[in-house]
Amino acid sequence: MSLHTPQQADTQRSDDRTSAVPRVASEPPGGPRAWLVWGTAASVYLLAMFHRNGMSAAALQAQERFDVGPALLSVLPMVQLAIYVLLQIPSGLLADRLGPRRSLLISLGVMAAGTILFALAPDARAAVAGRVLIGAGDSLVFLNVIRVAALWFPRRHYSMVSAFTGIAGGLGQLVSAAPLSALLTGLGWEASFLAAGAVNLLVGALVLAVLRDRPDGRPAPSHAFPSVRESLAEALSHRGPRIGMAAHSVIMVPFTVLGVLWGYPLLEEGYGLSTRAAGLLLTAAMVLPMALAPFLGRIPGSRPRLRKPMALVLAWTVTLLWLGVVLWPGGLPPFPVTAAVVLLSAFASVLAPSVSFDYARDGLPEQRTGTASGLVNMCGFTAVMLGVVGAGVLLEFGGADASFQTAFAPMTALCLTASTAMTVLLCRADR
């Protein structure tokens, strides 16, 4: 039996040919109500990004509070990301079955519990348990926010809404940088993270009141869902999700590695900046990209033929910039050079969803995008996790030669591999 009927199937987007997959009879209408529903879901993503990246601003305090070295310190975000990555496929399947509203309510409750545990953790083991819960709750968020976009907006608007979703995540990163650093300095560890946990409950009330799974009059999805194996086979049978997996494994990785843990240590210990100055730089690095993202994010949806060059330029720019940092003779590059690399990495990270997840939807019906999106997210954050841990291990055990320059070598190697794989996939599609 076919996994989807012609009435369910969406138009398969292609850079070089017209798809044979039919379009649904009527697309979601979009409009003000759709933006309100999406905005509510996006507020959950903003909060999740705050929780995900808060370890960067709190890294040095956590090192002192739990009396751990760089390698053990990297375990905190690594465990969180490991849980996030491992749950991407189950989260995608759950998103297809439960719908965004219930999934996001579950995620907020689990993240609140993890944040409270992390705030009150007496030792590193309890802190790790808190980050595990945060990672589990976080794993449900992004997939359901872009699922709201798929269910409430026409297909041509999907990449633009994905770009706005990236902006919401960027705002979460902004709040997790200088504002969280100031909050930790002013209120202390426990009060700051307990307040963050309370915000989860307030956002949960907003989700309960506003968010709905689909526009009025749109049919509910069939309960005859394919098995896990069939869902994975369906997603991987299309070239779009495979390209999205490779693209996400490079475009969003470097700035996410900085945001998750190593941004503050690089700037404070590598360049001697104050905590305030480091926070301001990481905050400023997000502002310009977020301003441009709504305009550039329209490209994959409105001009599909530009999607391929956009993906290639973003991937190879990020890769070559960090290759230059790692291979710079005599140590880290001058500060202005590294600052420019951080800025361009932030720019790529904000645009990553509009490219990666637009490819992920190719050939799939709107009701079953969760699994493909989970695969794309899993690949990207596996690369992030390996980059975070690789840096920590090299800094801890690298001896006298250990430096932030060598610490970013594993991340750069992963970016080079993913860029090459994406280029091969795109070139094969042209044949």
Automatic annotation (TrEMBL):
Start and end residues of each Major facilitator superfamily (MFS) profile domain: 37-430
Keyword Secreted set for record: no
Biased amino acid composition, Polar residues: 1-11
CDD domains to which the protein is assigned, alphabetical: MFS (cd06174)
Segments crossing the lipid bilayer: 33-51, 71-91, 103-121, 133-153, 191-211, 245-265, 277-297, 309-329, 335-355, 375-395, 407-427
Entry superkingdom: Bacteria
Keyword presence, Metal-binding: no
InterPro entries, alphabetized: MFS, MFS_dom, MFS_Efflux_Transporters, MFS_trans_sf
Molecular function terms from GO: transmembrane transporter activity
GO cellular component, one term: plasma membrane
Residue numbers spanned by region Disordered: 1-30
Subcellular location(s) of the protein: Cell membrane
Pfam families linked: MFS_1 (PF07690)
Membrane topology summary: Multi-pass membrane protein
PANTHER family: CHLORAMPHENICOL EFFLUX PUMP RV0191 (PTHR43124:SF3), PURINE EFFLUX PUMP PBUE (PTHR43124)
Protein name per UniProt: Transporter
